[in-house]
Amino acid sequence: MASHRRPKQPSRARVTVLTTAAAAAVVLSSQAANAAPSEKQSKDEVKSEVDKLYDEVEQASEKLNGATEKQDKLQKEISTLQDNVARGQEELNELRDGLGSMASAQYRSGGIDPSVQLFLSADPDDYLDKASTLDQLSAQQVDALKEIQDKQRDLAQQRKEAAEKLKDLSATRAQLSENKKEIQGKLSAAQKLLNSLTAAEKAELDADEQRATRSSERTALSGSTASASGRAGAAFSAAQSKIGSPYVYGATGPSSYDCSGLTSWAYAQAGVSIPRTSEAQSQIGTRITSQSDLQVGDLVFFFNDLHHVGLYAGNGQVLHAPRTGTVVRYESMSTIGGPFMWGVRV
Fold it and tell me: 300 by DSSP, 3-state: which?
């Protein structure tokens, strides 16, 4: 006989839970829908954050430049030390062979000379101290032994220096890797922010950037801008020829530059070698503390950590490679984003 039981109804508690969950879902969906528009940052907010990230990229880039320069210097020093050690070892071997020949000749003429024992000794210094009291070595042998000792000490010191520099090189390479990761991370974050903008907003940002560049160029080329001469003039002219070249971190030309890459390249065209990084460049030449005393072609430094440098263009303007996303251009010193610290006349 078929069963005619009524289906089991959900309990009142279960109905209450389901109803509450459904209501909560509706509320959350409504809140999310209402919150979505406000979560999107405005064009100006995105630009502000991107500019901050690009400034941090430049800071990291200057650290990277310094570490790269240090790595190159260490590699050259290590190579020189290793060459010196190799030559020194050959000279030491020749000295030992010469002393051995003397000992062999004396042995053939009668008896084992103490220098033979020295040649086989694990501690020549100790043996020489003892032998010197025996008056058994000729003046020629004593001189040969002392020369061997001096060469051994010199080689030991050079090997120690090479080992220390190799350790320093390893640490520098690790620092380089960290700097590159930091830069790539900040560039990726900046690009992600830019990708959140609409095509129209991106076009507005580009237009704003171009207007600012044209305005600064007109200001720099007008009014009381003085002409530069000598090495500073040649460097400034070289930098002017690169207006419009893109900023690329770590670049030193000839098609792209970072800030200190541009200034070091420009002065190199004038036949003057200056350091690679902005911080190192700030320590050369004659320091100019007052902006009113600056001349066209002087190096000008910004931010407390001196991570940005450009060439003074006169009329309160600087010719520089600003940051990622920009090109070599003129800009007012008042809009760099960091305080003017001092200038340097090379």
Answer: strand
Segment holding 260, helix H or strand E: helix 259-269
- Would you write out the chain's pLDDT as a tens digit for each of its 346 residues? 444 444 445 444 443 433 443 444 434 344 433 433 346 788 889 989 998 999 999 999 999 999 999 999 999 999 999 998 998 888 888 877 777 666 565 555 555 455 555 554 556 566 656 555 445 556 766 777 788 888 888 888 999 999 999 999 999 999 899 999 999 999 999 999 999 999 999 899 888 888 877 776 776 666 444 567 799 999 999 999 999 999 999 999 999 999 999 999 999 999 999 999 999 999 999 999 999 999 999 999 999 999 999 999 999 999 999 999 899 999 999 999 899 999 999 9
The span from the CA of 163 to the CA of 182, in Å, is 29
DSSP string, 81-113: HHHHHHHHHHHHHHHHHHHHHHHHHHHHHSS--
Q: Nearest Cα to 321, choosing from 307, 309, 305, 338?
A: 309
CB 325 within 8 A of CB 247: yes
Pairing between β-strand 317-320 and β-strand 299-302 as defined by DSSP bridges: unpaired
Distance CA 337, CA 304 (A): 11
Catalytically active residues, by annotation? 259, 308, 320
* Verdict on whether the full-model pTM lies above 0.70: no
Between CA 9 and CA 197 the distance in angstroms is 53
What CA–CA distances, in Å, run from 154 to 40, 99, 147, 271, 335? Answer: 67, 19, 11, 39, 56
HEC string of 155-168 equals HHHHHHHHHHHHHH
